[in-house]
């Protein structure tokens, strides 16, 4: 099962960061169902200051650029995304139209023999 890591920044405002975190304590059910329908597992988002790091496992052959399209087309997901974008900003390393910026794996303990 492939894993993906992504980075994103939050608007550097303590009140907005607190609200973003509060909203993620219980995301909208349609959003969670949509992510699960994609086959995503073990999705976690970590925060350090205004930087977010997301990690998740996906089914074999999963391509975020291709496979997120059906998820992103759902009306309730679009509402959630519009709400979240008010808290977020692209990471400095973002390329093109990336919002969540893909991260490269530079160390994997399991690969060490």
Provide tags for this entry.
single chain; 113 residues; alpha+beta; Alpha-Beta Plaits; globular
Short description:
The protein has 113 residues and is an alpha+beta fold.
Describe it.
By secondary structure, the protein is of the alpha+beta class. It has one domain: Alpha-Beta Plaits, CATH 3.30.70.100. The chain contains four helices and five strands, in the order βααββααββ. Strands 1, 2, 3, 4 and 5 form a five-stranded antiparallel sheet that branches. The model has no long low-confidence stretch (mean pLDDT 94).
Shape: globular
Major β-sheet, in short? 5 strands, antiparallel
Low-confidence stretches: none
Task: Kindly give the count of domains.
Answer: 1
Q: How do the SSEs run, as a string of H and E?
A: EHHEEHHEE
Instruction: Determine the fraction of residues in helical runs and give it as a percent range.
Output: 25-40%
Number of strands: 5
| Oligomer status | single chain
CATH architecture: 2-Layer Sandwich
**Class derived from helix and strand content:** alpha+beta
What's the level 1 CATH class?
Alpha Beta
């Amino acid at each position: 099962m492939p894993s993906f890591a992504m980075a994103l920044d939050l608007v550097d405002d303590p009140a907005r960061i607190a609200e973003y975190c509060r909203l993620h304590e219980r995301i909208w059910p349609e959003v969670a169902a949509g992510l699960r329908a994609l086959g995503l597992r073990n999705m976690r988002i970590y925060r350090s200051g205004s930087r977010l790091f997301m990690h998740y496992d996906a089914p074999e052959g999963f391509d975020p650029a291709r496979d997120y399209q059906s998820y992103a087309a759902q009306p309730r997901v679009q509402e959630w995304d519009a709400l979240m974008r008010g808290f977020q900003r692209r990471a400095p390393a973002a390329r093109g139209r990336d919002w969540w910026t893909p991260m490269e794996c530079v160390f994997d303990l399991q690969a060490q023999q």
